[in-house]
Structures are given as C-alpha cells and as structure tokens.
Amino acid sequence: MAIAENLIWPSAPAPAVAPAAPARAETLVLRIYFLMLAILGLAALVLNVENRLTPDLFAIAPPVDLLPPLSDQAWFGAFTVHQQDPVFAACGGSENLAQFKVLYWWEWLRRASMLLVAGSFASGFFIAALWPGYRFALRRHVVLGLIGLGYLAAAWGLALALPHVADLVRYNTGQYRHALDMTFASAALALVLASAIAAPDPTSSRPARRLGLAGSVWIGLIVLDIGSGALFAARDAATVWRGFPGYETGLLPPLDRLVAYTPLWLNFTFNQYTIQVVHRVLSIGLWVALIGNLIWSGGRRDARGGAALLLVLVIAQMAAGIAALRLGGPAAASLLHELGAIVLLAGAFVVLTLPRLRPDPSP
C-alpha cells in the first residue's frame, strides 16, 4: 500500500509543468517592459516637470523640428528665429548660442520622451488586451490609464476653477499645475516601478492581494504627502523656514504667519509657512504610523518584513528632505527627495499587493 501511494506516473506531471516555462518567460518580458517604461517615465518626469535644473535659461522654449539642426549655419538660423519671438524680446531674453543649444535640446528631448512614453504604454496596452499570453498584465495598464484620466479630470477642473475663483488667480497659478503634474506623474511612475519589481505572475499559486481599505488609506496618505511636497517645491517654501524640527522662535512659526492670507483656505495652497507645516505634519505622521504598523504587525514574517521595509524607506525619504531643506532647496537635492517619494510609493504598492506567505503544509 505504501508503495502504491508513492507511485508517480511519468505522464502525469506533463500538463502542469509544461506551461510554466513559457509563463515565466512572459513574466520576465513583462518585467523588462515595465523597467524600460519606468526609465522613460523618469526621463519624462525630469524633462517635463522638474525643469528647475536649468534656472538660468530663458523660460520660453524655442520651436523645435523633428530633426534638430545638423550644422553651425542651421543652429545660427534657428537661434535667429528664436530671438525674433516677441515673447523673447518682451521678457528681456539675452541668452547666447551655447545656452540656446542647451534649451533647444532640452525641449527636443522633452517632446521625444513624451512620445516614447505614450508609444510604449500604448503598445503594451494593446498587446496585453489582444494577446492572450499577456492578458494577465491588462489590469496594470488599466490602472495606469485611470491615473491618466484622473490627471486630465483634475487639470480640467483646475482650468475651470481658475477663471471663477478670484482668490486663486490673484497669484501665480503655476504652482497648482506643478503640484498636479508631480502628484499624478509620481503615482503613475511608482506603479510602473512596482510592476517592474513585482510583475504579475500567472503561474503563482498565491494571487496578488487587493489593496482593501487599509491599503488604500496607506497609499492615499503617501500620495497626499507627495502632493503637499510638490506644492512645497513649487512655492519654494524652503526659503522661509530651513530649520528642523523647530522654527526660529519655537516649534512652529507665529500664528499670524500661518494665517496671513484670506480667505483661510488660501493659506493651504499659497502660504509658504502653512504649506511647509502641512508637509511636515503629513511626513511625521506617516513615519509615526509606520512605526505603529511595525509594532502591531505581530509575528507574521511577511507583514513584519513589509512594515520594516516601508519604515526604512520613509526614514530615508525624510532624511533626504531634511538635507534638502537645510541646504536651501537646491534643484538636485529636491529632485533626489522627489525620486525618494516615488520609491516609497512603489514600495508601498509592492508590500501591500504581494501575496501573503502561507505556512508550508508538508512535514
């Protein structure tokens, strides 16, 4: 009887084992695809959103062609056309030819990065939708598409509100657009990076977890913190308060500085002091919550490891933010801090959606 129970028929495992290798190959291809999409998305983020790396160049980008100038004469001709732009003369443009070339290449690469990101995503979406072997990746593309639609809706809502809300248009509205761009771009890039790290696997016996209410709250807090940080950078709030953890005269700035604008809600969208307080409170609150999450994770190895990873990421992110603050918010340090927020959000996606480890039932 014991011998009979341990018999293994040669043909029995074939149907179960044969599809595993192709499925693993498809998962590897998917991981490479998401990694390439993350690299292109990072380039698009830097070139389109984080453009403070070129503070001394003229703010108005020149018109660019599909093929850039290939000779000195062509470069000089393009520079001459740029100087004849009425906006260039009105803003007192005084850049030289070398600076114009940098600005031209920046604009050319910016447009190329957007085309590459859009083309890569569209190709991946249609392959996942039409090719049965990659159908398991369709959900990730749908979520990315929803993030894009959410951005378009938010941008449309902002454009609709600006002409009708006098308190918004009294000041520069570019910071609101920057905050929207950075928030949605960070969310999309974090999801792409998480998909490259933990690509969906059709051969896994443990399906990915859904976020649920608790996971959605964690993701929402991180995204809200990223949005407040984007507004922080757009308003250059580091110039009014560089100390940490307290202000010059106490833990917080004087109340009259925190509520200097009327109506009151304008302080949360324009007041540099209040914006920095909001960002600090969110970051410190997230840090405290992750400490509590690590303590309450119990004896589950997967839960404890994920909680520890998120805590390490948020500590590194806060350290980068404090360093950027003390240095006065230089573009390179701010960019490093912003990229750290994307890594933190990607880590949250990975930790909150990975399948839970199950105890091995074998003796």
Structural overview:
The protein has 363 residues and is an all-alpha fold. The chain has 14 helices and no strands. The chain is globular. Mean pLDDT is 79; it is low at 1-21 and 357-363.
Keywords:
363 residues, mainly alpha, globular, disordered N terminus, disordered C terminus
Briefly say what this structure is:
This protein is mainly alpha-helical.
Write the topology of this structure.
Blueprint: H1 2-5, H2 14-17, H3 20-48, H4 72-83, H5 86-90, H6 97-130, H7 138-161, H8 166-169, H9 174-197, H10 212-234, H11 255-258, H12 272-296, H13 301-326, H14 331-353
Helix pairs in contact: 3-6, 3-9, 7-9, 9-10, 9-14, 10-12, 10-14, 12-13, 13-14
Q: In angstroms, what is the radius of gyration?
A: 25 Å
Distance from N terminus to C terminus (CA atoms, Å) equals 20 Å
The fraction of residues in strands falls at: under 5%
Subunit organisation of the chains: single chain
Sheet having the most strands: none
The count of strands amounts to 0
Coarse morphology? globular
Query: What sequence of helices (H) and strands (E) makes up the elements?
Result: HHHHHHHHHHHHHH
Mean pLDDT: 79
Which residues sit in consecutive blocks of at least 5 with pLDDT less than 50? Answer: 1-21, 357-363
By DSSP (H or I, 4+ residues per run), the number of helices equals 14
**Helix and strand composition category:** mainly alpha
Helix coverage percent? 55-70%
